[in-house]
Specification:
alpha+beta; PTS-regulatory domain, PRD; Gyrase A, domain 2; 4 domains; flat
Length: 390
C-alpha cells in the first residue's frame, strides 16, 4: 500500500487534498491487493476524466449553465430560515446582486455565533444582542416635541421601552450631549430630557429636534433589529442590517464564525480571499434553495474572474466586461460608439487575442482546435526510417 501511495505522490496525478483523503479512507479497511489497485486506478481515472479539456470554452459553458436555470428562478423576497421577523432576498434578484457586487444589498444580514462558553446562556445572548442592536432616541421616546414656553426640546421617554433596551435616562442624556457637542444644554429628569439650544430661534429648535431623533444611544450602526434563535450550537443572533467591522469588536462574539451576506463588507474587513469564498457560498446557496443543480466549478470560475486582480469587480460594463484590453470586445458588449470612438481617437491597437474580437473580423477564434498554432516545421528534414532487422 505505502509503495503505491508513494508512487502516486511522485507522479502527482492527484491533488494533495484528494490524495490524503484517499489514504485516510482505504488505509483502515481490509481489502486485497487487487481490490486496492482497482480502487486507486478508478480514483485516478475518475479524476482525470473530470478535468476540463484543453481549449474548452469554459466561460460560455459557465454562462449557459448558470443562465439557463436562472430563467426559472423566483423573484420574491423570502422569510429567513424560519425566523419570522427577518426577511432576505433570494432567487434571481439576489443572484443579480452577487454578480453585480452591489455596495448595498437590498436585505443585508449577519449571522453571529457567540463564544462557546456563553453560547448556551440565553441571558448572555440577550445582553450581546442589546449591545449590537442600534437604538435611536426616537426608538425609546414616546414623544419628541418643541416646548415654546421653555424654548427647549422636550423628550418624553417610554419606561417600558427603556427597560427592554437596558437603558437609563442618564445614558440617553449623555448620548445626546455628545452628539450636539456644546450647541446646547442637556437637562435630564424623571423619564424626560430637556435640551436648551444655545441659539433659541424656532428654526434652530426644529433643526436640533430632527437631529436629536436620529441620535444613536446604543448598539452599532446599520443593525436595526436582532433576533435570538436557539440552534444545535447554542444561541445564534440573526440581524437585520450589517456592520461586520463593529460587530467583530463586540465582547462575546465569536470572530471566527461571524458571517455577513454583504460582499463589500467582507472585502473591506477580511480581504479578497474571503470575498471569493463568500461569492461562491452565496451564489450556491441561492441556486440550491431554488432547487437548481449547477456544478460549483461554474460558480468558482465566476468568483475567480470577479476577484482575480485583488479587487472585487462586477460582471458588466463597469467591471470585467468594461475593462478588457480589446477595444472591439468592449464595443461588442455595450455603449459601442463610445468605445470605438475612444479607441480611434487614441489610435489603440487591438492584439486580437480574445474570442469576441476575432468573431467580429471573421478570424478563427482561439478556442478548441483554434487555440493551437501550427506545430510542424517544414525546414526540418524527415527522419530516415530505420531498416527493419530480420
Amino acid at each position: 500500500m505505502e509503495q503505491r501511495f508513494e508512487k502516486m505522490r511522485d507522479e502527482r496525478r492527484l491533488p494533495p487534498k484528494v490524495m490524503e483523503e484517499l489514504v485516510t479512507k482505504i488505509s483502515n479497511i481490509g481489502i486485497t491487493k487487487k481490490e486496492f489497485d482497482d480502487i486507486c486506478d478508478n480514483v485516478v481515472d475518475s479524476y482525470e476524466r473530470s478535468l476540463v479539456e484543453p481549449g474548452e470554452a469554459v466561460g460560455t459553458v459557465a454562462a449557459q449553465s448558470i443562465g439557463e436555470p436562472g430563467t426559472q428562478m423566483t423573484l420574491r423576497t423570502f422569510h429567513y430560515a424560519g425566523v419570522a421577523e427577518l426577511s432576505v432576498t433570494q432567487g434571481l434578484p439576489r443572484l443579480i446582486e452577487i454578480v453585480d457586487a452591489r455596495n448595498n444589498p437590498s436585505t443585508p444580514t449577519m449571522k453571529i455565533y457567540l463564544n462557546t462558553d456563553i453560547a448556551s446562556d440565553r441571558n448572555d445572548a440577550r445582553r450581546i444582542a442589546r449591545n449590537i442592536e442600534m437604538v435611536l432616541v426616537e426608538s425609546v421616546a414616546s414623544n419628541v416635541s418643541i416646548d415654546l414656553l421653555r424654548q427647549a426640546i422636550d423628550i418624553r421617554l417610554d419606561p417600558e421601552l427603556m427597560e427592554d433596551k437596558g437603558l437609563t435616562v442618564d445614558v440617553v442624556a449623555k448620548a445626546i450631549d455628545e452628539k450636539i457637542k456644546g450647541k446646547g444644554e442637556v437637562e435630564p429628569g424623571d423619564n424626560v430630557i430637556f435640551v436648551y439650544p444655545a441659539n433659541d430661534t424656532l428654526a434652530e429648535l426644529q433643526r436640533l429636534s430632527e437631529k436629536i431623533r436620529e441620535v444613536r444611544v446604543k448598539g452599532i450602526n446599520d443593525v436595526t433589529h436582532v433576533v435570538i434563535r436557539k440552534e444545535t450550537d447554542g444561541y445564534i443572533l440573526y440581524t437585520e442590517g450589517s456592520n461586520l467591522q463593529d460587530a467583530l469588536e463586540i465582547e462575546g462574539v465569536n470572530p471566527h464564525r461571524i458571517y455577513t451576506n454583504n460582499l463589500r463588507e467582507i472585502y473591506q474587513v477580511l480581504g479578497i480571499e474571503a470575498t471569493r469564498n463568500a461569492i461562491i457560498k452565496e451564489a450556491m446557496n441561492v441556486l440550491n434553495e431554488q432547487g437548481m443543480d449547477v456544478d460549483v466549478r461554474h460558480i468558482i470560475l465566476v468568483a475567480d474572474m470577479m476577484t482575480v486582480d485583488g479587487n472585487i469587480r462586477q460582471i458588466g460594463r463597469h467591471g470585467i466586461s468594461g475593462s478588457k484590453n480589446s477595444a472591439l470586445a468592449r464595443a461588442a458588449f455595450e455603449v459601442t460608439i463610445k468605445h470605438l470612438l475612444g479607441a480611434g481617437i487614441a489610435g489603440t491597437q487591438d492584439p486580437l487575442k480574445g474570442i469576441t474580437e476575432n468573431v467580429i473580423i471573421g478570424q478563427l477564434i482561439p478556442l478548441g482546435t483554434g487555440s493551437i498554432d501550427l506545430l510542424m516545421n517544414p525546414n526540418v528534414p524527415a527522419a530516415k526510417q530505420k531498416k527493419k532487422t530480420t
